[in-house]
Write the structure tokens for this entry.
Amino acid sequence: MLSQPIRTLSLSTALIAVLANQLGGIAPDIDQPTAPFWRNLPVGGFFGRVINKMLGGHRFLTHSLLGLAIFGLLAKMLLNFLHPIMPSVDIGLVWWAFMIGMISHLVLDTFTKEGVPWLLPLPIKFGIPPIKSFRITTGKWVEKSIFTLLLIFTVCYFWANYQYIKDILRHIK
């Protein structure tokens, strides 16, 4: 893929892909009634509790490979349904953006004390490192410090690769 020439990308595809990536990043937490997704809807608390019970609770189905496959299939079906009203959007790229967001959420949750049931229906939660006491507690200073370092790394990476990124952005129609 890196040896391929830069593809031309429509602005609509780029914007929808960014949105899809963000939605993919929060999609696994749809099973948590207090998730930001539900807090921002007028009756979100009610729906969040219903979805929580339907999906088996937080960090269950939506945090597994099975859940990833189900969400991927549903996202693909939705994008195919919407494609006639947005023909200039590369739905394949948008789908990948959604899936990358979702996978990154699951990978990062693997580093938390709760772990992730990757192989559901097997009732085993996987975590890195294997010793639970060495893992990150969600919402604590260690998580915030790591997030800050990742953000600094990302900014430095984009700054160091400014010309390459500029060339990519120049190919957006």
About this structure: The chain has one domain: 11-138.
